[in-house]
């Protein structure tokens, strides 16, 4: 541009300018206004400049006293490569975007991948049971299984289950119909078994649709209601309105209390149990539900024209037992549409005569149980080791009695998972430590590469493997290393992984 020339023609004139540009003229010759320029801000001499991070360490709690782990660590070498304490130099793609802090958790992540490979064995569908779902290795199994399309039923151990937000966050990492429950729920073996069965089978509502059971429950509740709130009594609790004044005022009290109580909904007429069960059939119950639904809708919407002021459900049932009504075709068949014969019926209300619960609803099924993964926690380790020393059933029962409540809960919750896996003939593997009577998985190079691949950031900024980490930057203040060790050994250290940078 410096040697170019510009030709300009002046409007309505007979001459042109064709002068060469000055050789020293360039794009920077004309300075922008001062208010466009970058402000010259003086640097705060008191501002602290963070030191560069050269290594990252997890905390080895198996040592006494605990120390920063040399195995679960990652160091940046002078030539820019990353060397892991267990796996040596790592082949990392610079564009993968893997946080250096994650590499200190590479071993538990790889162990979680190995556990999934062991029990799933490449299965495209199925349900994986996980105990200690908030710890590093089990959390990796949960996320990798969910990413592969498998259903996961996870149990957050007692040392982390007190944080509701954390339990919800881990639950969001699963895919439907998988779920996560706290340890306190898994202790109730029957309830936990129902959850697992619902995930495996997809919560099939048709199996629980029993019109006879619905009708029996209603009749039972109605009989109890009629006995507790009889229409002959103005109040179900007469002692609350017992006269305790002077005798000369009794007649005024009786008149006033009767007028006061009469403004409320009167009680229920008496029912003969035999007649009620014979006359009040499923069809009559469906008619009653329809009437009750219309009254409820009118009250909620504030439609005074449709509200029945003296609506008494017990009186309606009494009249229907004395003179049964004829059910309409709509309530009986539940098939009328707005668009004629070609239209699709939409069930706006629950019917006990025709099951419409699963109509046009896709209920995902987790599939058969593939196996279970147990992440060792301090409570679980003590409980299993103590019980395993008992030679007889009596010895084991006595050993359980001397455990703390948290250890008992850990043992009971893990037993719920183990029993379901063994009933289905599936393996149970251990990660994050060792437990007597169970096999601990060790990751292969394939598992390490799978863990690194899962940590990689995708184009949308997501990754298949994520962790809850609290970083202590000992590279800035050396005392942070000791403080991190101290915090990790607290009774309830929190649902996160402690990582120290140097």
Can you characterise this structure?
By secondary structure, the protein is α/β, with parallel strands linked by helices. Helix content is 37%, strand content 14%. The chain contains 17 helices and 14 strands. It has helices spanning 100-103, 106-120, 136-147, 164-171, 183-186, 189-201, 211-228, 250-261, 273-279, 282-301, 313-322, 329-333, 378-388, 393-401, 405-423, 445-455, 479-488; strands at 5-9, 16-20, 55-60, 67-76, 82-84, 88-90, 127-131, 151-156, 179-182, 369-375, 428-431, 439-440, 469-473, 497-501. The chain has a six-stranded mixed sheet. The model is unreliable at 1-12 (pLDDT under 50).
What is this structure, in a nutshell?
Helices cover 37% and strands 14% of the residues. It is of the alpha/beta class. The two termini are 52 Å apart.
Based on CA inertia axes, which overall geometry fits? extended
Number of helices: 17
Q: Give start-end ranges of low-pLDDT stretches.
A: 1-12
SS content category: alpha/beta
The helical percent reads: 25-40%
Oligomerization: single chain
Query: Quick check: average pLDDT?
Result: 85
Q: Strand portion, in percent?
A: 5-15%
Q: Report, as a whole number of angstroms, the end-to-end distance.
A: 52 Å
Rg over C-alpha atoms, rounded to the nearest angstrom = 36 Å
Q: Record the strand order, biggest sheet.
A: 6-5-4-3-14-13
